[in-house]
Amino acid sequence: MKLIVVGGGGREHAIIKKLKENKTVEKIYALPGNGGIAEDAECIDIKATDIEGIVSFAVHHDIDYAVVAPDDPLVLGCVDALNFVGIPCFGPTASAAIIEGSKAFAKDLMKKYGIPTAKYETFDDAEKALEYVRNAPLPTVIKADGLALGKGVIIAETREDAEAAVRSIMEDKRFGRSGDRIVIEEFLEGPEVSVLSFTDGETVVPMISSMDHKRAKDGDKGLNTGGMGTVAPNPYYTEEVAAECMEKIFLPTVKAMRAEGRTFKGCLYFGLMITNDGPKVIEYNCRFGDPETQVVLPLLESDLLTVMKATTEGRLAETEVKWSKKHACCVIAASKGYPEHYEKGFELTLPADRDGVYVAGAVKKDGRLLTSGGRVIGVTRVADTLEKAIEEAYRALDDVGFENKYYRTDIGKRALQAREK
Ligand code: AMP
Ligand code: GLY
After folding, report:
1. Any atom of ligand 1 within 6 Å of the Cβ of 188
2. For the structural domain made of 2-91, what CATH number should be given?
3. Which CATH superfamily is domain 125-180 in?
4. In the predicted model, is pLDDT for residue 151 greater than 80?
5. 100 ligand 2 Cβ < 6 A
6. DSSP H or E stretch at residue 192
7. pLDDT of 300-326, one tens digit each?
């Protein structure tokens, strides 16, 4: 089998390493991949959003199967375009990827089908939105409708902040066209849980739950980032919560998408908040999470390619998906200053043991690896206990070298505390 994996971050590195475990895989191309991924796949300099380029490459290289990992090519119809030339894919078509591509769509879907989520209003008009926030309860949550690299959510504590957020999204176009429309929603409280799932449009197979650490600094302080670390499983996701999520959220969502003529196949990511009124959906993603994937896939005992193909072919109900009972912790090392201004181009050295080492932002130049992004690398360790997984991940991170290396020192701490309660 010859595969392409579209994307070039730590998530894609984790997917590629797992796919390589399948003996029928002869070749994996990463489009575009990165300098670190180059150890595990042939990287081709085609952007993840260059749909024409991706299709043309796949056709000329007799690709048997494609995995489209990031949100933007999915929303742009990369899967539709590859399917059109006869290449089967893991990932939703554009009509289903809208569940992440438009927050207004997702909210309306949940309202129509009674799926628990925060109360909300949608606005196309800045004046009407401003009038609304002048009377809305505080804090209030303001979200750009479209994709915004995980940064399109502002939690406003004061009326001034709420008005400023509306203006910056709708008038100053801080997130470009993604902010033509906004969703303003009720502020919810409770621990957050990420649940990625495989779904073929009928059957939902949840993966191991995980906990992201979105804020840049220790103690969940600082700006929101793409994610500074993850642990799995998430202690807040008890068996009871899982059963409630399956009945009230997971199956109804997949059924609703089918009813709307937007059958979702691929990885559907449920961003959940466990409130006093039960679990509620904070967001849907139409793809694997980054860095959730870096703790979830190392705990998958079944063969990833087999499960992915069953998802594509509608055979999930008859496919066994087995998970390890162990714990995983992934700590991200970023460039100092991320998610704002940071420097790049520093030499990157990797731990000798590459197991669980996922490169997110690096380029290869004259045989050397140089940092090229905000999030540079993630290191995952799997162990019998969460304590051990955390300790080993941090120890491995000591062997990652680059100038201006920055990481949170408390990944997994909240999960440890949660268990003591
Ligand atoms: P999102 O990009 O939608 O996942 O939002 C980013 C983060 O904002 C989430 O992980 C939550 O921590 C927070 N958030 C989003 N919506 C709400 C809400 N309605 N109430 C409280 N926090 C929220
Ligand atoms: N880590 C959050 C996301 O992938 O959206």
Report:
1. yes
2. 3.40.50.20
3. ATP-grasp fold, A domain (3.30.1490.20)
4. no
5. no
6. strand 192-199
7. 999 999 999 999 999 999 999 999 999
